[in-house]
Amino acid sequence: MGRKRTKSGKIRLAEVAELAGVSPITASRFFRNPEALSVAKRTRVESAAKELGYVPNLAARALASQRTEVIGVLIPSLTNNVFSDVLRGIYDASEGSRYSIQLSNTRYSILQEEKLLRLFLAQKPAGLIVTGIDQTTESRAMLEAADCPIVQIMEIGPDPVDMMIGFSHYDAARAAVAHLFEQGRRKIGFVGARMDPRVQRRLDGYVSAMKDAALFEQRLVVTTATPTSVTLGGALFTDLLAREPNLDAVFCANDDLALGVLFECRRREIAVPEQIAIVGFNDLEFMASAVPTLTSVRTNRYEMGKTAATMLIEAIDGRRPEQPVLDLGFRVIERQSSSPRHSDSRPTVSGVGTANKMVALPSSHD
Amino acid sequence: MGRKRTKSGKIRLAEVAELAGVSPITASRFFRNPEALSVAKRTRVESAAKELGYVPNLAARALASQRTEVIGVLIPSLTNNVFSDVLRGIYDASEGSRYSIQLSNTRYSILQEEKLLRLFLAQKPAGLIVTGIDQTTESRAMLEAADCPIVQIMEIGPDPVDMMIGFSHYDAARAAVAHLFEQGRRKIGFVGARMDPRVQRRLDGYVSAMKDAALFEQRLVVTTATPTSVTLGGALFTDLLAREPNLDAVFCANDDLALGVLFECRRREIAVPEQIAIVGFNDLEFMASAVPTLTSVRTNRYEMGKTAATMLIEAIDGRRPEQPVLDLGFRVIERQSSSPRHSDSRPTVSGVGTANKMVALPSSHD
DNA sequence: AGGAACGTTGACAGCGCTACCAGCAACGAC
DNA sequence: GTCGTTGCTGGTAGCGCTGTCAACGTTCCT
Description:
2 copies of one chain form a homodimer. Chain A has helices at residues 13-20, 24-32, 39-52, 58-65, 81-94, 110-122, 137-145, 169-182, 197-212, 230-243, 255-268, 301-316, and strands at 70-75, 100-105, 127-131, 150-155, 163-167, 188-192, 221-223, 249-252, 277-282, 295-299, 325-327, 330-334, 350-351. Chain A is α/β, with parallel strands linked by helices. A 7-stranded mixed β-sheet of chain A has the order 7-6-8-9-10-12-13, sandwiched between helices. In chain A, helix 1 (13-20) crosses helix 2 and helix 10 (230-243) packs across helix 11. Chains A and B meet through helix 4, helix 5, strand 2, helix 10 and helix 11 of A and helix 4, helix 5, strand 2, helix 6 and helix 10 of B. Chain A binds a DNA duplex (30 and 30 nucleotides) through helix 2 and helix 4.
């Protein structure tokens, strides 16, 4: 209510202070630490600000206070569904806080990341969210020298720069392969695209699980540096099939590839899961809807983004979390595409708890 | 080369100027308008800045110059593939320019949009990109009063605030229905979710095309305000089928719904396209890979974002485009899912030019 | 040769806000 | 009753940069 066009000159803090009958500095305090004011002045400033439609000048604030209220976010891709979920979480968490998000796209290049990091750091951000744990030495040094809280997201690993939230892609891949073993599969192929560090670790997990079972063969692995797509899934699967016609399962590094494999099976009239089982990664929405429904490894992407931003904001405000490293775990969602061979074809959308784990961390109470 | 930790005090413009042996103001000019300097001073300042690793303080610059180098972007959703493509275009175009992107998510709420707009405008952005043409009256007024260039994206309509880039969702839907008519389909259902203004206009286009052919029936339309998903596509289609068992085609308001319909057909053993044809909207990557391949209306999302940001930056720099309103058109990509009934089942991935159109605009040369 | 015009440079002031410190009143402890 | 102590408020002095305008040297024109 009471909105008015403020055409006659701009509304500065001084105007608010004047209307409220206090000094500018008191008005300033109202916006930064309202509790420090007496109740009388607080309400006076509040209503004055509202009446004038005052909006603080962020540039002046940043200049005077020598810090910004910007959270820098570096992610590898804007189009990948995985990151858009994470981003949504980050934006949701930042909303309502006084921090704004500055987003940049590294395009899966750690050199680009380094460049952007330098840019970001120069603006003295309040906090930083970076993707993954594979920064350049230079980036790592900059991050460690930065005097703001930092969260690394998407995966967990040894020696975090500061805070860290994610899960083990390696363990998740092992769990997926273990699930296929349980279903009696032996000739399990791996299909991967882009091969960024996280996909690489999924591959590592697959390889180790297969080796543990003495089932590993190099020709079961088909990968490419090409960006992922559904179509690519079909192509890689075709390649895989040519190398190993007796394949009985495919573990796909992501769900798009899995969908592509499913379509390719349909095109070739390969029965899923009777002939070949399919397991994806990420558990995008469509996996539960496909025919047959597709098994996948569920990851908590939205929660990851939201928690990362929340932790970061808490840390900026001086309340460091008691657990600086958070493993959000994963979960193999078993569906028809990896049912036993003589499946009755009924959905089996039951999450198993086995793979849902939390890594033990220092100082874990609560 | 020559990177060094600048630990001893911060590098300000004054330091650069001192090292270069010029006044601070000259150094300042170097960064804003290098041509105004003599070659000698220019090189001196340049090397001084490089040697000291000078990075301008944006807050101080914004405060002193009373303007920022921020482009505000308001989009309805972060997770929708459509917008992530647009966003990628925007970010790509902004890269290399001196402008940075400030992104906010309206969540399909025009009230939220109004709120964010107010916030953005208060920071005096260099330019603004907003989604669609359905702002609140208040938002519209703010946009018109804003003293920065503005681009409306995603669709075109009458009286733009400033610049506009998109296409006619109405025409695109009509073209999709016309294509189905050409294939001999008559009982064509419409499936839509979320029902934001653009989806609504697709529905309008569908309705008008059906009415033109005297084939419209209300029960052929199934919509919901629920956010879209593949699973929802199946559910809405189930609903539609219950209302009209003799359906021979479905026009889906987006590709996710179309994929859901395809899966549901498979579940019900409905032959596509023999029994029912499917047409989607947006032409996401997976459409070409599905079995059968899925017909869709291709839209130029990445280009839209990229062009919007490019136009905006040009306008900010004082070079207004000769064409303030740009129709990027669309194209019906015909695939198997809408082949004639007695299809030989071979792919027909041929784009037709018929639906690809450009609206006539004032002062169109070049 | 004198003056205008241009290109280049610098001095000054101030953008709107906050850090810092000082001041004042009210209160309790001794 | 005096002396901290606390809670609240205000004054002063910039934060680092740029807009404006004036001044300078040089060139070109008449």
